[in-house]
Amino acid sequence: MRKTVVARVPEPSAAVPPGTEAGAPVRASGIGPVQDDPASESLTERVYRELRLRLVTGRIAPGATLSSRGLAQELDVSPMPVREAVGRLVAESALEVHSKRYICVPAMTRARFQDLLHCRLLLEPEAARLALPFIEPAHLRLLVEADERLSASLVGGDAQKYMQSNFDFHFLIYGARAQLTMLHLIETLWLQFGPWMRVVYGRVGTAHLLDRHKQALQAIREADAEALAKAIHDDIAEGMGLIGLTGLDP
Amino acid sequence: MRKTVVARVPEPSAAVPPGTEAGAPVRASGIGPVQDDPASESLTERVYRELRLRLVTGRIAPGATLSSRGLAQELDVSPMPVREAVGRLVAESALEVHSKRYICVPAMTRARFQDLLHCRLLLEPEAARLALPFIEPAHLRLLVEADERLSASLVGGDAQKYMQSNFDFHFLIYGARAQLTMLHLIETLWLQFGPWMRVVYGRVGTAHLLDRHKQALQAIREADAEALAKAIHDDIAEGMGLIGLTGLDP
DNA sequence: GTCTTTCAGGTGTGATCGCACCATGCGCAA
DNA sequence: TTGCGCATGGTGCGATCACACCTGAAAGAC
After folding, report:
1. CB of residue A9 closer than 7 A to nucleic acid strand C?
2. Residue contact A123–B122, C-beta within 8 A
3. N or C: which end of chain A has fewer CB within 10 A?
């Protein structure tokens, strides 16, 4: 998911207003949207962020088919915000609408996968390299915590928590330096391979990824940009390699 | 005002029963790229592409404010497809909605500009390098034509044609190899700096960009990947430098 | 004349309705 | 029992209406 649009609205992350959320399901009775809480983001935005989260954490399986009305009911909004949110994700190649019939995750071809991998290897090590000087002790602490959550999720068998922790780990690094454009590009990539990343979890070799994270942490402590870039590079290459092993479509 | 279903089903005049129709387009089983018949793209798609074109060719000025209803009237569609298209562009950071009041091009800060430039320099030379082996004589011919159109537009004083030709030139190179993901990322970047690129036109130094294009063409003829990457790199750096010279917001 | 107030118009957002399309399945006929 | 045809339900897309909000300028008060 998107990391707090720093330069825009100072509005708090809105990550956890479940209380108000439950109280204000505008799901009105015929009459207007009411929308009395001006601080709240738009419904479209909320749905958009929720779907992004689900994609990045692999909660939307590649084969599954979605529908705007179905999602609307599930998220307790009208189909309208869902339609808009889905449209945005379609523009980002994160979803696809097939012949105006159903919504699903785009197929993964070998060529597309290589393309995706190439882009990641181009952007992410560089993003990490650039961000390194901006990683402060507080940041490092968060990184270690994310890494611990990741280890725990491997032991505990919580796939979704694993995905979330992995996402947190990477974007805590990249996001240390406020380079929104590059961050956004990388997020777009994660949106696309996220659903497929799920198969990595629990696979032989997943443990290796932990080593890469350890190497990254060590590189950060030593302020060694090259070592950090290499650790990220290897983490990506190995992780994506685990996906690539499973037979792709074509 | 507009009269309804224009773009929809022109007519089934050919009287082709659905059964025989299935003969031509092999309805791919299950999921696949498929690329539904381009004949009847949705209105949203049409508006989306039109707005993208306008952004990339600098036809939407940084300062200008847009409105859904205004665009709808201008493009002769209802506000609905415009709203969706704008939403997609907002997701790509190509447009912005200010406090639910008006739509405009996002402000360009120095940091954002540097970020954008950095991403371009990371992706585009590499995209060109990768595409080089796939550039065939027919492609090269198109490239030369685009370059000639670009020169002509400088003489003729047609800013929009200049922008379009420049876009064509770059994406003819990158697109020689079908790497859709990387292409999409680069397009996202162009969408963001496009409106600001306009100020480059006619500026002192614009002629230098022509030299870079000539160098690129020569590199392609000689199949020199490094030289091509360097030409693209320099072209970007100089072109963006021309933008950077003009006082940015902060 | 200047300042305050109000109101009208316009905006993005959300809800609801209608349409063309397609897949599935029930019912009728062979 | 087996096969075909039509009806029904569900889909995405587009249009239209309703609402909260904000801005601009005109109208009023001093």
Report:
1. no
2. yes
3. C
Assess whether B70 (CB) lies less than 7 A from strand C.
yes
Domain CATH for B96: 1.10.10.10
- Write the single-letter amino acid at B2: R
- Judgement on whether residues A27 and A55 belong to the same structural domain of the protein: yes
Q: Is the dihedral of CA B202, B194, B126, B117 positive or negative?
A: positive
Whether residue B21 is contained in a domain is answered as no
User: What is the mean pLDDT of the segment spanning B126-144?
Assistant: 94
Considering CB atoms only, which of B42, B48, B119 is closest to A181? B119
Residue B61 lies in a domain: yes
Work out whether strand B96-98 and strand B102-104 pair parallel, antiparallel, or are unpaired: antiparallel
User: How far, in Å, is the CA of B101 from the C1' of nucleotide C10?
Assistant: 9
Nearest chain A CA: its distance from B148 CA (Å): 31
Total number of domains in chain B: 2
**Given the structure tokens 């399986």, which residue do they identify?**
A61
What is the pLDDT at residue B3? Answer: 34
B91 & B115 share domain: no
In eight-state DSSP terms, residue A12 is -
What are the backbone dihedrals phi and psi of residue A73, each rounded to the nearest 5 degrees, phi first?
Answer: -65, -40
pLDDT tens digits, B25-71 = 222 222 222 333 444 688 999 999 999 999 999 899 888 899 999 99
Query: Which pLDDT tens digit goes with each residue over B179-221?
Result: 899 999 999 999 999 998 887 776 766 777 778 999 999 999 9
Sign for the pseudo-dihedral over CA of B43, B49, B53, B56: positive
Q: Chain B residue closest to A90 (CA)?
A: B88
B237, B131: one domain: yes
Which of A84, A118, A181 comes nearest B182 by C-beta?
Answer: A118
C1' of C23 to CA of A58 (Å): 28
The CA distance from A178 to A249, in Å, is: 37
Instruction: Say if B76 falls within a structural domain.
Output: yes
Domain co-membership, A114 together with A30: no
Domain containing residue B52: 40-104
